């Protein structure tokens, strides 16, 4: 096997991204209450790999990522909160870096109260821009349960390609769940729409 030509550029010192109608910024301690507002909702968690969370649960699970900008290392990854009109409406994660492939995974969650207006789409678009422009990645993936219709729609709205449908891939919340893999390459993202 030959050595991968991909080289990860140094992580930025701070990360703040302005998208259309949204701002992505690092987590601050005072965001925990707002995050627990939606991460504590059973319906929001239906397709997420955790049960409804309290502020303490959130701190325990992803506290090590708060404020960090490096994707590298076993516990690397970036969590950004999504702000719209000054309020925290959701959060995003970029993680599971594959250094040789120059690839990472993106995850998203938005409060039901902020849903249905294109804000999640704008936020994910801004994070994918960041993944390619700031982190120099060449590929971004999303893993989605096919029953998660809003996430499937979001990935497709952004032009991500459905690359795989794994059948009964894992035991998930009381059933054998299927798994879709969506992906987009940097060169596709940069290409002007046909
Ligand atoms: C997945 C999730 C983020 C999608 O939220 P969403 O509200 O559907 O997404 P958006 O905020 O982009 O809104 C899209 C809607 O706004 C509409 N819209 C209005 N203006 C828009 C614009 N400028 N751009 C895009 N969409 C726009 C779209 O047509 C769409 O309408 P619809 O709801 O009638 O289909 C949200 O459902 C969620 O957080 N779910 C729980 C967590 C989860 O499952 N995460 C993923 C695990 S893989």
What's this entry about, in short?
The chain is of the alpha+beta class and 194 residues long. The protein has helices spanning 32-39, 55-62, 119-133, 149-157, 186-190; strands at 17-18, 23-26, 78-84, 87-98, 103-110, 139-144, 161-172, 175-185.
Mean pLDDT: 96
Number of strands: 8
What CATH calls the topology of the domain at 17-140 is Aminopeptidase
Rounded to the nearest angstrom, the radius of gyration is 16 Å
Instruction: Kindly report the spatial arrangement of strands forming the biggest sheet.
Output: 1-2-3-4-5-6-8-7
Number of helices: 5
The arrangement of helices and strands along the chain is: EEHHEEEHEHEEH
Q: What is the CATH level 1 assignment of the domain at 17-140?
A: Alpha Beta
- Ligand identities: coenzyme A
Please report which band the strand proportion falls in: under 5%, 5-15%, 15-25%, 25-35%, 35-45% or over 45%.
25-35%
CATH homologous superfamily title of the domain at 17-140: Gcn5-related N-acetyltransferase (GNAT)
Shape verdict: globular
